[in-house]
Amino acid sequence: MAESHTIKHHPALKHHFDTMEQQREAGTIGMWVFLLTEIMFFGGLFLAYIIYRAKYPAGFEAASNTLDVYLGGFNTVVLILSSLTMAMSVYCAQTGKQKMLIVYLVLTLILGSVFLGVKAVEYEHKFEHHLFPAVGFYDWTHEPGHDPQLADQARIFLWLYFAMTGLHALHMVVGAGMLLVLIYFAWRGKYSPEYHAPIELGGLYWHFVDIVWIFLFPLLYLLGFHLGGH
Hints:
Elements: H1 2-8, H2 20-55, H3 57-64, H4 69-95, H5 98-128, H6 150-187, H7 197-227
């Protein structure tokens, strides 16, 4: 009874919940509902990609070859490692390993920052070579050996590339901000085996963002690499 009384009156327990477990479950359900809306949000872009890829396979293959598959592959490894460090931070929070919790959260933030840095380099290269599908777009398909009709198809692919990876990068920036908040409160000693729901919820969000990239990488980068070669 004493233990139940202590948990019920934990400082982090909000007044509209009876127990810490009830509060944690409510937060988890809320996060899953949010992630479902995100799945529908990204789903529209994935559906557009599928439709246009089926309609313009040659143009998508040609445009995919303008992407750097090695930088994309490097970023994939970085995000997989960040998922591991995020999972370890959840474990440390659950087991009360305060110092290691902070270490793994910081490592996750560093890996996320590396990903964003590499993505910024990729975007810079695209703009330098006039491959942003707007004013000043360099239509390489008019060079000898290329079908001029591929130009509009290539633009569609690149619009989808910037829309999908840009939206994903925005989610990464939000995730980095979330990690900064979690690190701050972990440093203040707010989390414990009795209260670590924010770490778990942050982990769910981070893993979702990583999974989205796992789909983006083969669809965008490996299409031309596999079918047409670099």
